[in-house]
């Protein structure tokens, strides 16, 4: 056959059909910004630029506790290229700020209360000049003894005008004289973890002609940041605008307000744009961390292993300032017994100030710490009774209709038994001896110091629960607008995309409701109505609900003329695959034809049902909804050197409804991997209040080599009727359950108590073998 003939034959063949584009809810629609992020063209905050740009640097305290006797900025101001130096004297508005409680100064004035507290900030024409000028500010200190043990905070001199006690919750539920046939006790310690955001914390402040300022930040809660900034700057909120730039992922409050506020002050002082990009050390010193927690537990059970009473004391180290410690304590106390039926519970919870780095919102706050403790108690109880650990848990699991120790009835789906049974019955992975050629699978890797004969395998369980949205009367509300212009839909909502997938979900909601393929989500700024913080799954629920309601209003606008024309109601029309059809088949047209040349829009709000604060005895309907997760961990432990390798984590989770399968799986896998770091490697060490090794060399994040096989063995889709789409938050629950499961597996492998996270090697060493 000639080349010409071959070409003709090939040309005559029909082209392969294009792959269908994922569409609507339930499809794995790819993220709109995925290509830009993988190609390195996505605009993060650190990439910002402006004409006439100045650079900022912040001077931070080298001491965790000291009295400031003098601040001399003369030398810094006189350095060539320096345009401004600001201290507490230059704050024109409210000198205090804070996410949960305004108790933290913009700049320390009389006293520094933690290592890294801001004292002054500098703007200069070069970043090196700014850093040198900040170092040239002379601060005289009278160093004071830091209070770093939270137990000592009760008796120590007040570290703050508000005192050392932030909150005390005494939960009382049931009969205090109840007792069980079997009693187990334990003391547990949870270390301090850092959110460790991958991207640099950065921002740009640009002064406005009206005397206001625009802040370009990777903010996760722009309207709250605007209120804080306006108060500090002495401006009306409408004269401060927050524009959200690309957020490089967030598992907590993304931005350190301790540099947002100096940044804006410098721009207002100089009249020039000012940029600040924090070093990794500054990130560790500035933003909040997970609460280190001390927990004492006593569990009572009958002879069959059914829980009778739980007594606990929970002490959260809030660090120097309150931040969101009150909310974290409420979650810790409310979930102190876990997803188990406990007829009698008596919990004492405290959050106290110390001179340690500030603690605040980190994914699963409060719930993660208590999960590690109550699951250790369940292991102890199973061992004492001679019962299988999974079976003991199944005898006590919570279900829909049961009461929490707070007196709140669990009205949402709570398939805890199904989740636990699923992971228990999932086949176990092969033993290392079955694959001897894969030496790297052993703890320590192929060149590790251990011997294969010293490796023991353990299987353990973690069952966790988290609350969704805010709690204790928090007003959860979000507003969204959906516009359709000439066949293209646009969503305007101030819900920040932090990696949780909201922008993808918003596109799917509009596609599903209106049958329009091309959907764009507008950038976020504070000119839009507020949507709240991007945490606890609130944007899936509240902001997604607002988008759905707005889209349905636009749908009505689209269908009403057609319904009127054919003498029927809009309820008799449906939109499927871009087509509008009537129930009887009389009407059949396309969405594209009906929206061509038209402009439709609607704005809607979503506000879940209200909650209430816990009362003086820890009782109250404090939570909108809850999500549950069960994890079975399989670990290999070298009992001679204490090295641990997580072999597999089998996960079953109640998700309400799967809205985007690929996105949901990624979120669960990321949460589980974060839990591996909490269990084994991540511990921000702060001897005498000073952060040691504030970098990613000293702070050991798990890498791809540390990630185990993650098996998502079941997703229970029992829809929560009060939630839009029936979906639940998915990220926090595996973070809560996986550290507990890993610790349980190490206990099973070694027989050691393992009462501290992260697990130290000496805790996994077994002597006398």
TrEMBL record:
Pfam families: Ald_Xan_dh_C, MoCoBD_1, MoCoBD_2. Residues 1-28 are annotated as: Disordered. Coiled coil: none annotated. InterPro entries: Ald_Oxase/Xan_DH_a/b, Ald_Oxase/Xan_DH_a/b_sf, Ald_Oxase/xanthine_DH-like, AldOxase/xan_DH_MoCoBD1, AldOxase/xan_DH_MoCoBD2, AldOxase/xan_DH_Mopterin-bd_sf. Residues 39-145 form the Aldehyde oxidase/xanthine dehydrogenase a/b hammerhead domain. Residues 1-14 have a biased composition (Low complexity). PANTHER family: XANTHINE DEHYDROGENASE, XANTHINE DEHYDROGENASE SUBUNIT D-RELATED. This is Molybdopterin cofactor-binding domain-containing protein.
């Amino acid at each position: 056959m000639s080349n010409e003939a071959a070409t003709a034959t090939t040309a005559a063949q029909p082209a392969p059909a294009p792959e269908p584009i994922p569409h609507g809810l339930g499809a794995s629609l790819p993220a709109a910004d995925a290509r830009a992020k993988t190609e390195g063209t996505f605009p993060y905050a650190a990439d910002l630029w402006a004409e006439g740009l100045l650079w900022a640097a912040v001077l931070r305290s080298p001491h965790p506790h000291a009295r400031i006797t003098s601040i001399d900025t003369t030398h810094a101001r006189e350095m060539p290229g320096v345009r401004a130096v600001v201290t507490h004297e230059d704050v024109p508005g409210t000198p205090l700020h804070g996410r949960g409680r305004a108790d933290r100064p913009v700049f320390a004035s009389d006293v520094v209360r933690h290592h890294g507290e801001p004292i002054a900030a500098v703007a200069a024409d070069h970043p090196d000049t700014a850093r040198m000028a900040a170092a040239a500010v002379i601060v005289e200190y009278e160093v004071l003894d830091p209070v770093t043990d939270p137990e000592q905070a009760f008796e120590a001199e007040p570290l703050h005008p508000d005192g050392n006690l932030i909150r005390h919750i005494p939960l009382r539920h049931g009969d205090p004289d109840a007792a069980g046939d079997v009693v187990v006790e334990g003391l547990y310690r949870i270390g301090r973890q850092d959110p460790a955001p991958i991207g640099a914390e950065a921002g740009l402040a640009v002064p406005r002609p009206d005397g206001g300022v625009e802040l370009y930040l990777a903010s996760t809660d722009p309207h709250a940041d605007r209120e804080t900034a306006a108060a500090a700057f002495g401006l009306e909120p409408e004269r401060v605008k927050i524009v959200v730039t690309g957020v490089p992922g967030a598992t907590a409050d993304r931005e350190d307000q301790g540099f947002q506020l100096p940044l804006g002050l410098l721009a207002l002082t100089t009249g020039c744009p000012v940029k600040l990009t924090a070093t990794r050390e500054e990130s560790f010193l500035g933003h909040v961390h997970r609460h280190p927690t001390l927990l004492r537990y006593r569990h009572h059970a009958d002879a069959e292993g059914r829980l009778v009473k739980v007594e606990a004391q929970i002490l959260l180290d809030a660090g120097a300032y309150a931040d969101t410690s009150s909310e974290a304590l409420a979650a810790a106390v409310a979930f102190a017994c876990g997803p188990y039926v406990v007829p009698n519970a008596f919990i004492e919870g405290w959050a106290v100030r110390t001179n340690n780095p500030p603690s605040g919102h980190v994914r699963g706050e409060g719930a993660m710490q208590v999960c590690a403790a109550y699951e250790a108690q369940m292991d102890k109880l199973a061992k004492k009774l001679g019962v299988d650990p999974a079976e003991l848990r199944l005898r006590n699991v919570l279900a829909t209709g049961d009461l929490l120790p707070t007196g709140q009835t669990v009205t949402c789906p709570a398939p805890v038994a199904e989740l636990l049974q699923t992971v228990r019955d999932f086949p176990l992975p092969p033993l290392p001896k079955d694959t001897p050629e894969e030496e790297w699978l052993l703890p320590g890797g192929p060149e590790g110091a251990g011997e294969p004969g010293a490796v023991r395998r353990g299987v353990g369980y973690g069952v966790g629960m988290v609350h969704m949205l805010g709690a204790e009367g928090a007003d959860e509300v979000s507003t969204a607008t959906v516009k359709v212009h000439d066949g293209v839909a646009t969503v305007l909502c101030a819900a920040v995309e932090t990696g949780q997938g909201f922008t993808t979900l918003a596109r799917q909601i509009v596609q599903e409701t209106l049958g329009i393929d091309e959907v764009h989500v507008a950038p976020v700024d504070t000119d839009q109505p507020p949507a709240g913080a991007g945490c606890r799954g609130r944007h899936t629920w509240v902001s997604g609900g607002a988008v759905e309601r707005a889209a349905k209003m636009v749908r009505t606008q689209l269908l009403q003329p057609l319904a009127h024309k054919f003498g029927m109601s809009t309820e008799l029309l449906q939109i499927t695959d871009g087509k509008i059809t009537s129930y009887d088949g009389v009407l059949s047209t396309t969405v594209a034809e009906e929206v061509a040349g038209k402009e439709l829009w609607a704005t809607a709000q979503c506000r879940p049902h209200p909650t209430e604060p816990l009362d003086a005895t820890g009782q109250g309907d404090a939570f909108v909804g809850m999500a549950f997760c069960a994890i079975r961990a399989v670990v290999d432990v070298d009992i001679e050197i204490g090295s641990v390798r997580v072999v597999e984590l089998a996960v079953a989770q109640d998700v309400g409804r799967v809205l985007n399968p690929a996105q949901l799986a990624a979120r669960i896998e990321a949460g589980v991997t974060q839990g591996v770091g909490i269990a084994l490697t991540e511990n921000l060490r702060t001897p005498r209040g000073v952060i040691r090794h504030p970098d990613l060399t000293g702070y050991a994040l798990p890498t791809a080599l540390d990630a185990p096989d993650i098996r998502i063995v079941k997703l229970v889709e029992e829809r929560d009727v009060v939630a839009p789409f029936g979906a639940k938050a998915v990220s926090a629950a595996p973070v809560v359950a996986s550290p507990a499961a890993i610790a349980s597996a190490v206990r099973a492998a070694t027989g050691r108590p393992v009462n501290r996270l992260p697990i130290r090697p000496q805790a996994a060493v077994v002597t006398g073998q």
